Amino acid sequence: MSLELNEQQVLRRQKLDELRELGIDPFPPHLFDVSHYSKDIKANFDSKPENYTKVKLAGRMMTQRVMGKAAFAVLQDSHGKIQIYVNRDEVCPGEDKTMYNRVFKKLLDIGDIIGVEGHVFTTQTGEISVHVTKLTVLSKCINPLPLPKEKDGVVYDAFTDPEARARMRYVDLVVNPENKETFIKRSRVIQSLRNTFLEKGYLEVETPILQPVHGGAAARPFKTHHNALDMELYLRIANELYLKRLIVGGFDGVFEFAKNFRNEGIDRTHNPEFTGLEIYVAYTDYNWMMDFTEEMLSKCAMDVTGGYDVNVGENAISFKAPFARMTMAEAIEKHSGIQIDGKSEEELGSLAKEKGCEITKEMGKGKIIDELFGTFAEEHMIQPTFITDYPIEMSPLTKKHRDKEGLVERFELFVNGKEIANAYTELNDPIEQKERFEEQLKLAARGDKEAMAMDYDFVRSLEFAMPPTSGLGLGIDRFTMMLTNQASIQEVLFFPQMRRENFE
Fold first, then answer.
1. Band of pLDDT at residue 2, cut at 50, 70 and 90
2. Residue 488 and residue 268: Cα distance in Å, rounded?
3. Does the predicted model carry a pTM greater than 0.70?
């Protein structure tokens, strides 16, 4: 990006000076008390015109069509667009016509934010419009908007480049206002889930973002140094271990919409900073959590989209409960032919290599199984599917399966070939938890950069007894992608992480 001003930018800065010379502040500090919005007016004027004899609106001027002593323009506010009609003698009732002849016609540009007062009427062509009696400059746009142009049904200069839209989301939302709907739906996702939990009596909490131990997930952390305490801290990769401490403390149900950070690659489904929901409920297990997950996601889909069925790319997805259920061993065998039960790390590694998987020496048994599932089975999980009963090596925070040796009570929910949720019957035996952490340390010594660290304080908390508990983590960004039919995580994040822009 060049810092050198182009012709339009220079011209608009000159207009700033001209406005100031006329005694008009292009960035006034005073309140503009908006009384109505475009959407409300257009929806209700025909039935109740008496409610719109005096209105005040504010927004961006997106088009301008001057016809001598009168002009039409389009005002875009946060709710939509509406036409305004500006008559010289009505906005300038006295001898001085500067506000119309000079300010409105010459010094205002597309993108400028203005306030208008007047009344609503219907034009001869039947368009609901605002008849302006007073106009106020609220903010001058000194960088021209990249507005699309249409001719003969063909759109030119549309602001569609994904990278530019992500870098300048503030511009994207102005010139492509339809994209607001994605972010509105994202907000509704969180609202729906929150309402479900609050109705159940669960408590919304906040836990530390800076943590002395990076725990709760298999991921590479961001590390920083705290000067006053002279110690290393990590941006949290998950909030799981703190939420379970609160279950020890006596809360029966806690949840948090948490910003998590993982020092990993960026692709269509990964961003280093993401939003995760985690919920923990005492005196339950993973079977209960599967049923609850079906309930809350079905309700959420209905709340956000008005139905259970959504289109995700070429696939029609139904979030209507119940969801399909399949063990991890069944899924791997079905899609690869490999039977993993009873196999050693060496046997699984050899079988995986024979199938073309990239197996390295630092990968333990859990990582090999995860690689098999990811390579052969994951992409086939199109409809919501619970994959259950994971090998113990993959799940150091999970209780051993009550019936199946070598497995744990864990499930992940896959939709459209992507994992969106992860849940356990939580391990609450402090002695076994310490041993599981020690196994993770051995994997770290072998070179596994995602292995969990030892968290002695968490082990100590379990020594004071945590009741039987199930917990769930849900990726808000990925779930939103599915409900809004977006192929890239960048489309559901206002400001996704990107390579630093060069302004020199």
1. low
2. 4
3. yes
